[in-house]
Amino acid sequence: MDKKKEYGNPEYFENRELSWLKFELRVLHEAKDKSIPLLERLKFVSITSSNLDEFFMVRVASLKDMVHADYRKRDIAGMTAAEQLAEINVRTRELVEEQYGIYNRSLLPLLRRQNIDVIDEFEKLDGKQAEFVDRYFDENVYPVLTPMAVDASRPFPLIRNKTLNIAAMLENKKGKSPKDTVEFATVQVPGGLPRLVQIPSEKEGGRSYILLEQIIEKNIGKLFLNNKVLCAYPYRVMRNADLSIDEDEAADLLKEIQKQLKKRQWGEVIRLEVESGINGKLLRFLKEELKVAEEDIFKISGPIDFTFLMKMYGLPDCDHLRNKPYVPQRVPRIEPGEDIFAEIRKGDILLHHPYQTFDPVVDFIRQAAADPDVLAIKQTLYRVSGNSPIIASLAQAAENGKQVSVLVELKARFDEENNIVWAKMLEKAGCHVIYGLVGLKTHSKIALVVRREEDGIRRYVHLGTGNYNDSTAKLYTDCGIFTCQESIGEDATAVFNMLSGYSEPLSWNELSVAPIWLRKRFMRLIERETKHARNGKPGHIVAKMNSLCDRGIIEALYEASAAGVKIELIVRGICCLKVGIPGLSENISVRSIVGNFLEHSRIFYFFNDGNEELYMGSADWMPRNLDRRVEILFPVLDEKLKEDVKHILFIELSDNMKAHVLKSDGKYEKMDKRGKTPLSSQEKFCEEAIAMVPRQDHVYRERVFIPAEPE
């Protein structure tokens, strides 16, 4: 049946937000995996908690804004904003219930078996522990607290976003009537003190911990000496944190973002978390004061905000409960301390992080800053680490008299404040700092070094799939390439001219740049495979990315699949495409890898009738990446590097340990490993980076990348 006119049918698409919650569930399920060390499992619970916070502050907040504005347009899956919110509410409650079930019924008992006890109620303290807790409160906590009563003369205070607080109901015996005797108060749990407090253990050689809010609850009467505390319960609010910036009206983007950052703490309350069992009258008080809807109240059966578990992950003397730390290996082509420019001149160099160290990228900028023959350095920065060596080198380069141009993307969500600090520092050092483009985020990862050499000016370029962040480069899987090919150097210059001025090149040599050219390039590449399949030739696409939710791309993939193209997708998070639809997506497979590292690289393979093409870049297949951001797609031109990148894809397609496969019912399932050799792609890459053993390239080339004849 000809499906061409029906490719855009809403039934063929998954809602973006619900797909993201499925990803969150995949992350949470790692906490259930008994083969993973205990503290690693705790870490996954913590990750789901912080992920969910950001999801609510941005995505749910955006949907609420749409509802307030009476915006009724349906998404690609046919859902209105109100319908999405209703379904998100149901799925989130299921997720949170499972999250706390794993923690309470599985992880806490396992911790106790390891003589690690987390006391969740102060009533469970023995005499010695209670005495310690009281003394700790008096000496360390009491001086920091600011109890705030609420009455006619003292209105309910502004509760900051994501802060943990304790609400109390008090009895004032000085009241003239029973109604007057009940008062309310709130106190913020201080974020500057450790939330996890070690206390004396009742077991020999054991360790006991209690949460800071429990210490405050136990001693809360000391804050209200003239009142009787009837009850006290912790709570936390989540606020709309999506910045609203009118760039056309903003005279100074930097100042406008600084102003909006202050508002982030006081946005609309979109979620209220309270401890289950909270007093009904106290809850009604919070609901009224915070102006929060009933459906946005979550009653939690355990500690509110699991991000403290990341602190537990680092407990001393618990190495046996964690994965053995992996040390990124050196890139075989690059000897530390050697002239990196000389190595790049010998040929393109592929980097694969975190299996290989990020140091060559840092050294690339550091050597350029000190090299007297380097004339200019140009770089885009989206997110950088707190004490970035790259920032320091760029500043040093400017002080050394080099021309340094840096595009700092101020609108990188939740990194705005950090980026403002670095931007000001670079300006003071003499760098030319560009604050992005109006209406667009600059998400591309590119660095250009212009060097004077004996045979003339040579341009050295680094292109990557991940940020110039030396910290996350140890946690995220990303790829990058060093090259001094003239065609790419010319394109790199054109990119920076476009970013710094009004120069848009009429054509590109090798790079494809969003938002103007990239979508068309991807569509042409997919359509080419479709044409080959219709002509009876094998068609094959392998694409690895973080998210897939662009309607145009998905429709093109459906058309390619219907024509007989074999499509293998490795999508970490959101995937709005559905598999297994008869006559439409039967030739498409989707897998998501959730492991110790965060999958972040974007790699695209097209068989092209045997003339294989490989690309990497900064963009996912999302409308924001293709239409509203500056992104770069770059080809892998070196034949040896092509084989190396194909190897990365092959290993990930062979992963049967950490891969979750999308089924036709929309659910993700782990691979069936029976009768198969276990393979975790991330562990395999670690082993290969350590061993640096030559691979039998022809084996995987024959097995995966030469498709069978279409039926």
Strand and helix layout:
Elements (H helix, E strand, L loop, with lengths): L15 H14 L8 H31 L12 H33 L2 E4 L7 H15 L6 E3 L13 E8 L10 E7 L7 E4 L7 E5 H7 L9 E12 L13 H12 L4 E7 L4 H11 L6 E4 L8 H5 L26 H6 L3 E5 L5 H12 L3 E8 L7 H11 L3 E6 L7 H14 L2 E3 L6 E2 L3 E8 L2 E9 L11 E8 L2 H15 L11 E3 L3 H17 L5 E6 L5 H13 L2 E6 L16 E6 L4 E2 L3 E4 L6 E5 L5 H5 L1 E7 L3 H16 L4 E4 L5 E3 L10 H11 L5 H8 L7
Parallel strand pairs: 1-6, 8-9, 11-12, 12-13, 14-25, 17-22, 19-20, 20-21
Antiparallel strand pairs: 2-4, 3-4, 3-7, 5-6, 7-8, 10-17, 11-15, 15-16, 16-17, 18-25, 19-23, 21-26, 23-24, 24-25, 26-27
Helix pairs in contact: 1-2, 1-3, 2-3, 10-11, 11-12, 14-15, 17-18, 17-19
Q: Provide the helix percentage.
A: 25-40%
Task: Tell me, briefly, the overall form.
Answer: globular
Distance between the termini: 16 Å
| Mean of all residue-level pLDDT scores | 90
What fold name goes in the CATH topology slot of the largest domain? Endonuclease, Chain A
Work out the helix count.
Answer: 19
What about the largest sheet? 10 strands, mixed
Strand content: 15-25%
Quickly give the CATH architecture of the largest domain: 2-Layer Sandwich
Domain tally: 4
